[in-house]
Specification:
By secondary structure, the chain is mainly alpha-helical. About 75% of the residues lie in helices and about 0% in strands. It has a domain of about 150 residues. It comes from Ancylomarina subtilis.
Length: about 280
């Protein structure tokens, strides 16, 4: 069989297992070692490894999922390594959805940290580097917050410039997707620690309304109007924000303040939200 045929056969088997929701077929896919024959074809090999990681995650086997990503790191292009590492680290965060308790969460998230640190080293030098750096910082700070490392979480942002996203990049739906897709994680850190300075800095990056930033003194109103505006502009932002609601129960033990915020947003209780934000310092 050619590499392409092996690849297509494996993807077909994986898709069949997912479509039919059949764990036996998914396990059959994982037990098929023909994927190693694809190692000389990175585009096939890396994609199959990510399919395998996703399959392991379905069984709650997150360490094994990470091992699949590890197999492919050396096959990544120089420019693609940091994104691959980000996706690798995010795999461990599936523990929030599985919700097997704090000890298991700590075990999984601890595995994400060195991967994120390597991604920071692999970050490409291009016009959007500082925004990619902020995306990684948001994820890393969220992980550290979840591990109870407040000082380290906040220190993550020490080198961030918090430059506003350029309007052309904001309007280009293909641009800076990874920044917006992980922005709620940064907002979660600021909200959990009731850190007004960090929250204002993060809002400055994604706000399209300079007058609002300069003149609005009510922090909740500034936050909410910026949030709604960004929802309208970037689908990946609202997708992640909504995803946070799905892991709210898992967040209660590691980020009770942010979990409380999510509850109030869900209830649309703006009076209580206004009071909640008045405690920010």
């Amino acid at each position: 069989m050619t590499s392409e045929n092996i690849y297509k056969s494996l993807v077909e088997l994986y898709n069949k297992g997912i479509t039919e929701k059949d764990p036996k077929i998914i396990r059959e896919f994982l037990n098929d070692n023909t994927h190693m024959a694809l190692k000389e074809e990175p585009r096939f090999f890396l994609d199959i490894l990510q399919h395998r990681a996703a399959a392991f995650a379905l069984f709650g086997e997150l360490t094994e999922a990470g091992q699949e990503y590890a197999k492919g790191y050396s096959s990544c292009s120089t420019s693609g390594k940091w994104v691959y590492g980000l996706n690798w680290a995010l795999q461990y965060m599936a523990e929030f959805s599985i919700n097997r308790g704090k000890a298991k969460l700590n075990e999984s998230l601890s595995q994400a940290l060195p991967v994120l640190e390597q991604s920071e080293k692999d970050l490409v030098f291009d016009q959007y580097r500082e925004f990619y750096q902020l995306a990684l910082c948001n994820v890393k700070a969220f992980v550290l917050m979840s591990l109870g490392e407040k000082d380290k979480a906040l220190e993550t942002y020490k080198d961030c410039l918090f430059t506003p996203v350029p309007i052309p990049a904001y309007n280009d739906k293909e641009s800076l997707q990874l920044l917006f897709a992980h922005y709620t994680k940064g907002l979660a850190v600021a909200i959990e620690y009731k850190d007004a300075e960090l929250l204002n800095s993060l809002l400055k990056v994604i706000s399209l309304d300079d007058a609002l930033l300069q003149n609005e003194k009510n922090l909740f109103k500034l936050f909410y109007e910026t949030l709604v505006s960004t929802f309208d502009m970037r689908a990946e932002f609202i997708t992640e924000f909504n995803a946070m609601f799905k892991i709210k129960e898992g967040l209660k033990t590691v980020a009770p303040g942010f979990a409380r915020f999510l509850s109030l947003i869900g209830e649309q209780d703006f009076d209580k939200l206004d009071v909640f934000f008045k405690d920010f310092k």
